[in-house]
Write a structure and sequence with these properties.
heterodimer, A: 263 residues, alpha+beta, two-stranded antiparallel sheet, two-stranded antiparallel ribbon, 8 strands, 35% helix, 11% strand, B: 202 residues, mainly alpha
Chain lengths: 263, 202
C-alpha cells in the first residue's frame, strides 16, 4: 500500500499542472498572424540586418504590418521573394541585384606604408592611430575587418592584404560598407561592369608617391568616354552609373589601370 | 528570523558559496549567455526572479505535501515538475501582458526551466532549513532570501564574465583558444579567485 501514496500524489500533481497549463495557455494566448511563421520560414534566416530590421523575424513582422517593403531583403533569391509576395498577396517589384565593390587596389604589394604598425590587427583600431599605417590616407588598411564582418563569407583577403569580393556569394547586405573605416566599399548593381578601384583625393603627385595604382587625375578617361559618364571630381575619377553603359573605353585608356571591370 | 543570519546568508550566497563559481551549478548559461553584458544582465535578473519564486513554491510544496505524506525522497522530481510548470506559466503571462518584458526576459525563461542552479537552490533550502522533518523557525524567510541572494550571486558572476569576455574580443588570442576554450580558462581563474572567500567563517 505504501506505493499508493507517492503514485497518487505525483499523479495528482501532474494532472493538476497539466490541466492548469492547458487552461493558462487558453487564457494567456496571444493571437499571432499565421502568415508570420510562413513568411519567416521562407526568409534566409541570416539575420544580417540588410533590410534595416533587427533580423529576419523583425523583417517578417514588418512585412506583415506593412512597415517594410519586400525588396529590402537583398539576400533572398527572386524566387523566394516571389513566394513570400504570394503569401502576403502583394506584388513584387523586380530590381537588379547589387554586389559590393572595393574602391582600392593598393594592398601590401602596391601601396607603401608610412611606418610599422604593431597594434591590434583590426582596421577600425588601426585607423584610430594616425589613420592607419598606409601612406595613402584613403586606401585599404588591409586587416580584414570587412572579411570578418561579412555574414556570407563573400569577402576573402588575398595574399596582398586586399579584400576580394566573391560576387556570387555577395548579397549586398551592406555590412562591409558600414564597417570599413575608410568607406572603400559601395554597392554597385551587377549589370554595371566598370568601377574605379581608387578612392584617393590626393593630387596626382601625392598619389603617385604613396601608391603605384592610384588615380592621378589625368582625365584621359573623361576624354575617352562617349557618354559623358566619367568625370574627375576632386582628383578622383568618378563614374555616373545613370549614364555608364559599360562600354569599357575608359578601362582601355587608364594609364594606371585603376578602372577595373568585373565579370 | 534575525538580520545577522540574513546578512550571513547574503554574503555566503553571493561570494563564498557562489552558485556558479564555487558550487559549479548553472554553467550552461554562464558560458552560453555571457558573450555580451546586456543579455547577461537580463538573464541574471530572470534567474533571480525564477529562483526566488520557485523556492517559495517548492518550500510550500515540501512543507505541506511531501512532509505530511512522508515522501521526501520524491523531492527532486516534484521540484523539477513545479519549477518547469511555473516557468511555463510565467512565460505565458509575461507574453500576454508585457511584450517588452517578454522580449527582454522571455527568451531566457525556457533556458532557466531546466537550469540546475534553480533546482540546486531549492534542494539546498530544504537541506538547510528543515531539521528532522520539521521547518526551523523563520525557515520560509530564510529560504526565500537564500534563493534571492543565490540569484544575485549568479547575476554577479554572469556580469563579471561578460565584461571580461567583451574585453577578450579585442585581444590577440591564439586561433585555437578563441571563443569557448579561453572562456573556460577565464571561468576557472574566476572560480579560483572566488575560492579565496572561503576563509571567511560565520
Amino acid at each position: 500500500m505504501d506505493i499508493l501514496i507517492p503514485v497518487i500524489t505525483l499523479g495528482a500533481m501532474g494532472l493538476f499542472f497539466g490541466i492548469g497549463l492547458a487552461l493558462a495557455a487558453k487564457k494567456f494566448c496571444v493571437a499571432s498572424d499565421p502568415r508570420l511563421e510562413a513568411v519567416y520560414g521562407k526568409l534566409p534566416g541570416a539575420n544580417c540586418g540588410a533590410c534595416g530590421m533587427a533580423g529576419c523575424m523583425g523583417f517578417a513582422e514588418g512585412l506583415i504590418e506593412g512597415r517594410c517593403t519586400l525588396e529590402r531583403c537583398s539576400v533572398s533569391t527572386e524566387d523566394t521573394l516571389k513566394a513570400i509576395a504570394g503569401i502576403l498577396g502583394i506584388e513584387l517589384k523586380t530590381k537588379i541585384k547589387a554586389a559590393a565593390v572595393l574602391h582600392c587596389y593598393g594592398g601590401s604589394a602596391r601601396a607603401k606604408d608610412k611606418g610599422a604598425y604593431r597594434g591590434l590587427r583590426d582596421c577600425i583600431h588601426a585607423n584610430l592611430v594616425m589613420q592607419g599605417q598606409k601612406l595613402c590616407a584613403y586606401g585599404c588598411i588591409g586587416f580584414g575587418t570587412c572579411a570578418r564582418v561579412c555574414p556570407f563569407n563573400a569577402i576573402i583577403m588575398d595574399e596582398g592584404d586586399l579584400p576580394v569580393v566573391k560576387e556570387d556569394r555577395c548579397t549586398a547586405c551592406g555590412k562591409c560598407v558600414a564597417v570599413c573605416p575608410k568607406k572603400l566599399f559601395s554597392l554597385v548593381p551587377k549589370n554595371h561592369k566598370v568601377y574605379v578601384a581608387c578612392s584617393s583625393h590626393d593630387s596626382g603627385k601625392d598619389t603617385k608617391a604613396a601608391c603605384s595604382v592610384g588615380c592621378i587625375a589625368c582625365r584621359l578617361c573623361e576624354k575617352a568616354c562617349p557618354f559623358d559618364a566619367i568625370h574627375v571630381i576632386d582628383n578622383l575619377a568618378t563614374i555616373d552609373y545613370n549614364k555608364c553603359t559599360s562600354c569599357k573605353k575608359c578601362v582601355a585608356v587608364c594609364p594606371v589601370k585603376i578602372i577595373k571591370t568585373r565579370d | 528570523m534575525d538580520v545577522s543570519k540574513i546578512l550571513a546568508i547574503a554574503i555566503s550566497m553571493i561570494f563564498i558559496n557562489n552558485f556558479i563559481l564555487s558550487k559549479f551549478l548553472g554553467l550552461c548559461p554562464f558560458l552560453g549567455v555571457s558573450k555580451e553584458t546586456k543579455p547577461a544582465v537580463s538573464m541574471g535578473f530572470a534567474v533571480i526572479f525564477v529562483m526566488t519564486c520557485s523556492s517559495i513554491i517548492t518550500w510550500a510544496l515540501y512543507r505541506f505535501i511531501l512532509l505530511p505524506f512522508h515522501i521526501e525522497y520524491l523531492r527532486t522530481i516534484t521540484f523539477i515538475l513545479v519549477i518547469a510548470a511555473f516557468v511555463q506559466l510565467i512565460e505565458m503571462a509575461i507574453r500576454k501582458y508585457s511584450m517588452p518584458l517578454y522580449r527582454a526576459l522571455g527568451i531566457y525563461l525556457p533556458l532557466i526551466t531546466t537550469n540546475c542552479a534553480v533546482l540546486g537552490v531549492t534542494i539546498l533550502n530544504v537541506d538547510n532549513f528543515f531539521v528532522a522533518g520539521k521547518a526551523i523557525k523563520g525557515s520560509f524567510f530564510y529560504a526565500s532570501f537564500q534563493a534571492f541572494f543565490a540569484g544575485v550571486g549568479f547575476l554577479l558572476a554572469l556580469f563579471l564574465m561578460s565584461g571580461i569576455r567583451e574585453r577578450l574580443q579585442l585581444l590577440d588570442i591564439p586561433e585555437h583558444a578563441k571563443g569557448i576554450p579561453i572562456a573556460f580558462v577565464i571561468a576557472s581563474l574566476m572560480s579560483l579567485s572566488f575560492m579565496g572567500f572561503m576563509g571567511f567563517k560565520f
